[in-house]
Amino acid sequence: MNIAIFGGSFDPPHTGHELIVQKALEILDIDKLLVVTTYLSPFKESFCAPAPMRQRWLAKMFEGMEKVEIFSYECDQKRQVPTIETVLHVKHLYKNAKIYLIVGSDSFTALPKWNRYDELCSHVEFVVAPRGAFHPPEDLKILPINVNISSSKLRSFLDRRFIPKSIENEVMAFYTRNPMDSRIERIVTALSDKKAEEIQVFDMTGKDYFVNTVVIATTMGERHGLSLLDHLKTELKGAGESFLNVDADDNWTVIDMGDILIHLMTPAYRQKYNLELFLKEREDEMKKVRGVE
Q1: Which of 30, 44, 128, 278 would bridge with 2, disulfide CB 3.0–4.6 Å?
Q2: Where, per UniProt, does this protein localize (predicted)?
Q3: Which helix (H) or strand (E) is 264 found in, with range?
Q4: Among the residues of the chain, which ranges form H helices?
């Protein structure tokens, strides 16, 4: 089996990524192309869009492309994962597979800085997608394209021409969204308007948690949580917010907005599970790890 791996931050995905995948499928003799979203790059401290949201965008972009798989290994680890680790994991899953590793020309020139670079070279054949001026070695596989857009530039100068149509509205809404304080204020106001009680907001930024902010509110009864959910959808979707996943229940409803998690709980469930204590303990654990205490 021949497998290509194409990894990146995809923060956000753009038409250049789309073209790279299309050309790789045309040029390379492969059975599968794994698109790997990094949870956190070794060369960055954070991303703008949370990992589940970036993976969801990619899934929509490449929907219907039979050989393309959104490979969640790195995001599942919830930590920085060096490329060599991902490659070895793929080789464990697909015994004796030939692995192509697709990288941009800027990444290719920086390869010697990568974790266990020599070992990586022994396991993969590199395929380069040029961007700008690039003078490759003669024996290097090159995709016949030149991608002159980067995710960082796209975040700074949002241009719809470079955002795939399938995710255009979601991407534009996310990167032009209101600052976090305004978003939280809108959520709290919407909950208060519909009689939610004991609303608490927990800032989890930098605490090794999978979202930046957690909102917990107490409902007045079993059906009230579902009513609050409907009201939040009405109030927030018009403001460009995305509901990535909703687990709705009479006693406990969880709303995943990518970087914000909302818990709507009956009084009995809130007392029983005591999420506030868990989140406070998480904060204390991270303080100890960082030597703050």
Answers
A1: 30
A2: Cytoplasm
A3: strand 260-265
A4: 15-27, 51-61, 73-77, 83-93, 105-109, 117-123, 151-156, 168-175, 180-193, 224-237, 267-273, 275-289
Summarised one tens digit per residue, pLDDT across range 258-284 is: 889 999 999 999 999 999 998 888 767
Question: H or E element: which one contains 126?
Answer: strand 125-129
- Joined together, the tokens standing for residue 6 give 């194409």
**Superfamily of domain 180-289, CATH level 4:** Beta Polymerase, domain 2 (3.30.460.10)
CA atoms within 13 A on the CB side of 153: 10
Contacts of 145 (CB under 8 A, 6+ apart): 19, 20, 23, 129, 130
Q: Where are the domains of the chain?
A: 2-175, 180-289
| 2-175: CATH topology | Rossmann fold (3.40.50)
Tokens of 197: 């009680």
Predicted model pTM = 0.65
108: phi then psi, degrees, rounded to nearest 5 = -60, -40
Alpha-carbon distance of 76 to 47, in angstroms, equals: 16
252: amino acid identity, one letter: W
Q: Are 90 and 97 in contact (CB under 8 A)?
A: yes
Strand partners, 101: 5, 126
